[in-house]
Design brief:
Length: about 150
């Protein structure tokens, strides 16, 4: 959800600006109406779990998968990203088009924001433009490990 259209699942109420400059309450979007309608059928326990899951999603770290040759491996990555709370996955399809293997991804792709690129340079440029630092995996012994990687800088 965008910052302009935040919905609180705990109270099932809109939390963005309630009126515009003329004091008129804006109309709800179709998604907001649907959430409000379906909210009456969700238990408080489930609302709390959903809210917690949404609050723990991150865009601080993302993943990019390049030239996916075996879609079942990448689909497992989608499932892991969903479990770890990564919101965005960037798919680079220089030569190989990727389609999630739903038997492996187990529905994870519908909860993630998947960005697709036709060229690696396009993905790198876009990721840097929105503030990401590019870190790549390598079997080089002189590199760092995930536990020693500085995620704050």
């Amino acid at each position: 959800m965008t910052a302009r259209s935040v919905i609180s699942l705990s109270g099932m109420e809109k939390s963005d600006q309630s009126t515009n400059l003329w004091g008129i309450e804006p109309k709800m979007t179709v998604d907001e109406e649907l959430v409000e309608y379906l909210g009456q059928y969700v238990t408080e326990n489930k609302r709390t779990k959903i809210q917690s899951a949404l609050e723990n999603r991150t865009r601080h770290v993302t993943i990019a998968l390049e030239e996916i040759y075996q879609p079942h491996n990448a689909s497992a990555c989608l499932r892991n990203c969903d479990c770890l709370g990564f919101q965005d996955v960037h798919i680079i399809e220089n030569r190989n088009e990727y389609r999630p293997n739903e038997g492996v991804a187990m529905g994870s792709s519908k909860w993630l924001t998947i960005h697709r690129y036709r060229q690696t340079s396009e993905a790198v440029r876009q990721l840097r433009a929105i503030g990401y630092r590019i870190v790549a995996t390598t079997p080089n012994r002189a590199g760092c490990t995930p536990s020693t990687l500085d995620l704050e800088s």
